[in-house]
Amino acid sequence: MIDGHGDDLYRYGNVAMNFSSNIFAHADLSGLEDWLRQNVHLIRSYPEPSPRSLEVMLARCHGVAPGEVMVTSGATDAIWLIAQAFRHKGSYKVFHPTFCEYEDACQTFGYVPHPDASLCWLCNPNNPTGEAFSLPQLRELAHQHELLVIDQSYEDYTLSQRLSAEEAISWGNVLQIRSMTKSHAIPGLRLGYITAPSEMICYLRSQYRPWAVNALALEAGKWLLCHDVKAIPDLTAYLLEAQRLRTMLEGVEGIGVMDTQTNFMLCHMGKGTAAELKSYLVNEHGMLIRDASNFKGLDARHFRVAAQSPDENDALVAAVTSFMKTKRYD
What we know:
Blueprint: E1 17-18, H1 30-38, H2 52-62, E2 69-72, H3 75-85, E3 91-93, H4 101-108, E4 112-113, E5 119-123, H5 135-144, E6 147-151, H6 165-171, E7 174-179, H7 180-183, E8 192-195, H8 198-207, H9 215-227, H10 235-250, E9 255-257, E10 264-269, H11 274-285, E11 287-288, E12 290-291, E13 302-306, H12 310-326
Parallel strand pairs: 1-11, 3-4, 3-5, 5-6, 6-7
Antiparallel strand pairs: 2-8, 7-8, 9-10, 10-13, 12-13
């Protein structure tokens, strides 16, 4: 289960700059916050047992039928629901390193890993590497597996070509997971959804609990869609800044950085450990990074950061440089 994930601010009291979460930290949520304050009375009543009103709005946004959309309490809730519902498949496949919840959920429901599994999980763009798969690659994976689950939680953090809900549904065996949590920078509200052929959605609904999505999360989702709020005002400029951060980190002696097509990047240290670096940064500079050593396939020297403002990125590079200089003499 999740432990040591990004954005573990609750463990610390002195964080001024948060590079640990892949979610953009500077989104303007003032309009949403005002709206939720005006509608806090909604907590006095039960929400819809199934959030159909938001599903209708999301279906309209994607150009699909309402019966092809299912809202969940965050993307992780969707992952666990899918794993539970299709546990009769028996085996699964994931590509490491990637988000641990695919494997954790499958193993909880009795699946076993197998290279020729009928159920395949894919994160696109992938967390923590920032790699984005092309449409031909996705189409080939769909042909190779009875069921393909594509977690597109970070689809609004890349300029690479994305698989639309309409096209994926036409393939017949693809479930896509999407995250309003990440697209709109509202991780505390927990709001995600699945798009898939209607028969799959109908089956998933039969496995889901009532009142899973709270009233304020639903209200937030509807307000965000009505007002077309973008968490990242200028994605092109932001991704250029992310590449600038990557270049600067690459220039730090002892640090290697993978190519990325998103705002976040996976780094590797030649000396020291990610845990040591994380402790140093948070205690000495009030900066939080993601120790990536608990991703399967990575080691104690891997860490992940997500680009923030130019000034914050410059400060991070200076602090990492300072730490790595101390490791020259270890």
